[in-house]
Amino acid sequence: MLEWQRKGVSDFSEMTNLSLDLREQLSDTFKRCGLAVVKELDSQDRDSIKFLYELHDRQRIETVLMRYRFGISCCISSEAGCLMGCAFCASSLAGYGRKLTSGEMFAQVAQSARLVNQRIRNVTIMGTGEPLNNLEALIDFLKRLHDPEFGLGMSYRNMTVSTCGLIDKMLVLAAEVLPITLSISLHAPNQELREQLMPIARLYHFDDLLAAAQEWTLRTGRRVTFEYALFRNVNDSREQARELASKLRGCNCHVNLIPANPVPGLGFEPSSKEKVNSFQEELSKHGINATLRRSLGLDVNAACGQLRRQLPDDKAEGL
After folding, report:
1. 283, 246 in Cβ contact below 8 A?
2. How far apart are CA 97 and CA 112, in angstroms?
3. Which of 12, 34, 152, 269 could crosslink 26 through cysteines, CB 3.0-4.6 Å?
4. Per-residue pLDDT tens for 80-135?
5. Helix axes 135-146, 167-175, angle to 10 degrees
6. Is-catalytic flag, 304?
7. Hey, is 293 helix, strand or coil?
């Protein structure tokens, strides 16, 4: 086990079991992927904590810890900003900075665990950025997280990668045969509506995406999760639920329904509780496994779709 895992240190100067000369040599030779905490926000119910971290080049990212019955889950960012431009998401609003290194992804997990002095049980790559747009670093990060000697020894089954559907890169990741969970942001029952909500759909057709999800299951033995955020009078009708069910029939999948979280200025409103329940009931009636995701961190803008890139002088809402 590494020194930082045993002692909780993240700086060479803190490794006091090494000589001063060696510590200075390490500091001069290697660049740490450490994160500076700019802000920490706790939700009122204490179920989530959002960290605003600054990287060595002043790029800023957000990481969220969520407390569940089974333990703590860490939602990390894979890029500073996002290029995907989904109409309902805050992640693209401040523009695009850069891809994160695998070390910077790993540091979000390690640093956050250290700050709360608790073990992270699950990791989701669902913060800012499209993880498959940073595929090489993502794969290295997943393997490092799993490594019992040089990482955290986390089971692949406790890792979830979210994507808006980059089919070619989905299949490259599938070839690694890592038993992770793949979570595909769908948010629409057909190609036409998906194009309106998610520009990436113009490059990757709805039907091809579903075929790639089937291929993922064949290659990995793991079912996929489809994320479906429900927006008032946009994609939340019973008819749309029936259409979605017809498209997913025969697919080894799970649908994660998300009561949409508000992002000021984007013009989308969350569906009513009645509409959400009705949508779930319709899917279940047609044999589609669907559950409602519990929303955490709304009061600190830490919920799904609310994370965003931060600039050094940015005074974003919730910070």
Report:
1. no
2. 22
3. 12
4. 999 999 998 888 787 899 999 999 999 999 999 999 999 999 999 999 999 999 99
5. 30
6. yes
7. coil
234-244: string of b/e by CB count within 10 Å (b at 16+)? Answer: bbbbeebbbbb
DSSP track, 159-223? EEEEES--HHHHHHHHHTT--PEEEEE--SSSHHHHHHH-GGGGTS-HHHHHHHHHHHHHHHS--
Q: Which domain holds residue 235?
A: 30-300
Say how many C-beta atoms besides its own lie within 10 A of residue 81's C-beta: 23
Task: Tell me the pTM.
Answer: 0.86
Q: What CATH number has the domain bearing residue 199?
A: 3.20.20.70
The answer to the question of residue 24 being in a domain is no
Residue whose entry in the numeric block shows the structure tokens 């113009």: 202
Task: Read off the pLDDT of residues 47-67 as tens digits, 9 standing for 90 and up.
Answer: 889 999 999 999 999 999 999
CA distance 308 to 263: 11
Q: Of the residues 79, 251, 304, 317, which is catalytic? A: 304
Check: CB of residue 79 under 8 Å from CB of residue 99: yes
Q: How far apart are CA 59 and CA 312, in angstroms?
A: 7
Separation CA 238–CA 250 (nearest Å): 20
Report H helices in 221-272.
Answer: 238-248
Indicate the DSSP class of residue 249.
T
Indicate if the alpha-carbon torsion angle 178, 303, 245, 287 is positive or negative: positive
Question: Looking at the domain assignment, is residue 36 inside a domain?
Answer: yes
Question: 18 in a domain, yes or no?
Answer: no
Please name every residue paired with 255 in a beta bridge, in sequence order, or none if there are none. Answer: 226, 290
Dig out the tokens for 111 from the structure: 């640093």
Tell me how many domains the chain contains: 1
Write down the catalytic residue from 24, 40, 62, 176. 62
104 carries an active-site annotation: no
